[in-house]
Structure prediction request, 426 residues.
Amino acid sequence: MSDSLHPDIPAIDQNVFSAMQSLKELSKIQKALDIAQKQTDQAMAEQVEICEIPSPTFHEEKRAQEIARRMKAYGLTDVTIDSIGNVVGIRKGSGNGPVLVIDAHMDTVFPEGTDVTVRREGDTYYAPGIGDNTSGVRALLQLIRCFNEADIQTQGDIIFVGTVGEEGNGDIRGAKFICNGDRHIDGYIAIDSFTAGVVVMGGVGCHRWRVGISGPGGHSFMDFGKIPSAIHAMCHAGHLIDQLTPPSEPYTTFNIGTIKGGTSVNTIAPYCEVDVDIRSISNDELLKLETQIFQAFEEGVAEENKRWGITDSERMLKLTKTQIGDRPAGARPDDCPVIQTALCAQKLLGIELTQFCPSATDANAPISKNIPSACLGSGGLSEKFHSLDEYFVAQDIHQGPQLVLLAACTLVGAEGQKPLLPIINS
Prediction:
């Protein structure tokens, strides 16, 4: 793995650290931190209950309704499900303060019909989706309880969101919708299924394309040499793509993830399509590699047409490209207030920083809008996520909510302390 995935950790701003240290000593903040630790059994039971509500990408409705119900039960009075399916609960501040969004995505990668029944062995829980991202939803709901049961008063508003469509072809559509400019946002924290030692400081850009090659097709014997094959052209293009060497710094990758086409073993294929995933932490390198890959597909089609001397437009293979994913890349500077408060909260809580790196999360959306942002961990340990063997170890699950709570209170200002999150001018 490239060293570019592990950039130097920024120095902690001592002014931010001192402000958070003073805040942490306040009685209501201490009460909230204690609530997170004392409610771990309740929180883990909630994680199990939510996990057992199926929530495939594009079909999060049942889970969304249950999360909305729980947000209201835990004291949020302004709770709605927006037009794209996000659950949005607003906790108003005293006024004239910055607006902070805290989100956790509700969807999982598993299709309808997947058995999501949770099996427990000691402190380990087994089920598809038990970690990614039911653990994030658990931490989000625990945060709401901490704020309301400790009666913490903030100057700025906090918007709690359960987002749709973070996974796969969902293309972070829920987070993009929140950041589309319809509401004012000064800062953003996404909670995902990492340990509390992880700080995601940037967004790995991801472009996904469905590339199709089509032609008339024909009989494998009678039309041999007269009709070009869509599959043969795609194989040639795939070979060319496999020869590409993207840079290791900034870390840039490609993958042909699916391929399908043809009609039978004795038919010259009239159609073939692939889904391509291109990633980089640099938008420039992402676009450069994308251009090279498109050129390879063009050459694959041209080579197959040329091989058989096809010049008739009705018999020639043709290429189509449809974008199915667009996650913008970006990174936050060292002095980003969300990153600084996250690092300070880790230090004050005695949490070791284990990873400081970019990733592909809901935080890509606000980062691309130059909104102070980071993705933080839910606490606990998620393993084998995106597989049917996924499991979650319920150790130190209180650390995720505690970490985000301290960061959020410092950012929006709590219990009379000045907020450290600047208000973005519209």
Notes: The longest strand covers residues 205-214. The chain is about 35% helix and 25% strand. The chain has two domains: 3-204+329-412, 205-327.
